[in-house]
Write a structure and sequence with these properties.
Layout: H1 5-34, H2 38-42, H3 53-62, H4 65-73, E1 75-76, H5 87-103, H6 106-110, E2 116-121, E3 124-129, H7 130-155, H8 162-166
Parallel strand pairs: 1-2
Antiparallel strand pairs: 2-3
Helix pairs in contact: 1-5, 1-7, 3-5, 3-7
Length: about 170
């Protein structure tokens, strides 16, 4: 069986975003249980020169549902909107992304193959095909940001592990 563009993007995005939703739940519970300010958790960084947890979550949305939407439009630019500063806002952002991804059919995504795609940031423009944008730019960025979000939570004492990161595996039926 040949893999399609849909097969290698949407199900993986959804699996990992569901896992991220669980991480958000655990982070919120950790804050309540340990009397940690939610704002401190949401603004936490691994290093001073890195973006905070909230940014990492927002970027997972940008590089999943946002990436598919951008391919449909033919261009992608980083979203300058500040991320939510509450667990409720971050959870809503992830839930909306999951809902958007759930509306795509394999035919919708597979029809994007071969389309021209342009990454635009300030004066920089990078030309891609749809599949090269999704596979060489968005997927790596997606996993980078979800991993960084996980690492920030783990570094700050949230009791999470590899199973929390992986989420629900797609096992043979």
């Amino acid at each position: 069986m040949a893999l399609t563009l849909y097969d290698v993007t949407v199900p993986s995005f959804m699996q990992t975003l569901r896992a991220l939703s669980g991480l958000l739940d655990k982070a919120e519970a950790h804050c309540a249980e340990k009397n940690v300010s939610p704002a401190a958790c949401i603004s936490a960084r691994l290093f001073d020169d890195m973006q905070p947890f909230s940014f990492q979550v927002a970027q997972t949305v940008s590089h999943s549902a946002g990436a598919i939407k951008a391919v449909q439009a033919g261009s992608f630019s980083p979203d300058p909107t500040p991320p939510p500063e509450s667990f409720a806002g971050l959870k809503a952002m992830v839930a909306e992304s999951l809902a958007q991804l759930g509306r795509y059919t394999p035919a919708d995504v597979n029809a994007l193959e071969g389309r021209d795609m342009l990454f635009v940031f300030k004066d920089r423009k990078l030309p891609f095909t749809a599949e090269n944008f999704l596979l060489s730019f968005s997927l790596p960025n997606f996993y980078f940001h979800v991993t960084t979000a996980y690492d920030i939570l783990r570094h700050n004492g949230v009791a999470i592990g590899k199973r929390d990161f992986l989420g629900q595996l797609r096992l043979k039926q």
